[in-house]
UniProtKB/TrEMBL annotation:
It is found in: Cell membrane; Membrane. Its main location: membrane. The chain crosses the membrane at residues 6-27, 34-59, 71-92, 104-126, 146-171, 183-203, 209-228, 240-257. The keyword Membrane applies. It holds the Pfam family TauE. It is a multi-pass membrane protein. This is Probable membrane transporter protein. Keywords: Cell membrane, Membrane, Transmembrane, Transmembrane helix. Belongs to the 4-toluene sulfonate uptake permease (TSUP) (TC 2.A.102) family. InterPro entries: TM_pro_TauE-like, TSUP/Inactive_protease-like.
Amino acid sequence: MEALYFMVSFIASVAGAICGIGGGVIIKPVLDCFHIASVSTISFLSSCTVLSMSFYSVGRSFIARDSKVDAAIGTPLAVGAASGGLLGKYLFGCMKALSHNAETVGAAQSICLAIITLGTLIYTIYKDRIPTMRLNNKTACVVIGLFLGVMSSFLGIGGGPINLVVLFFFFSMDTKTAAQNSLYIILVSQIFSIIFTLMTHTVPDFDPLSLTVMVFGGIAGGVLGRILNKRINNKTVNNLFLALMGIIIFISGYNIYRFLTI
């Protein structure tokens, strides 16, 4: 089982570090497929893995002084995402309490993820034909970040493809610049999310060995992903992103069927 945890977290983190999607958007639905832990536990393990990968990737970029993070935009987005993440956790807790059925919550998450990912895929395919904006208003950035945080936290993916769409459309960033800014947003929001979980004593039951293996896989994936990102161009990153979106939609569709038929 630990081998599965490692491979999923490693591969997801490689892709996440290259594309800026964090990896949680892959880890969460894939582990849901295997039904090896509760929805809450998988979300927590995914968040910890994404935190470890983004911490390495963002930290290494700053140390190497090759970071493309625009602090004037990324920081208010990250602050909003951190706040939205707390709201998303609250909404997830409310749904879990009201449903009394973990499978219903899992189905709701999978449906939302499939819809968001499909929208992201369509936008990315046609983005060259869509006029973009160049927002620099900090209040607007916080509000947009709030929305990103709510969706990411509620879905348990720690970040995800919607970050890139927002950075493409509202801030006219190219693929690689958007990827680094997305990881920065994910890092800040995940730090606050984990702190909130610890302070509110809402950490779900989990196997410490599984967590250790996934965190190690996340860091290792971040190392390889950063190396690969520097060696490939924007077009290749974009194509990889599109392929991942297709895979996530397929997996989410399967999870919807599985959760609703259990």
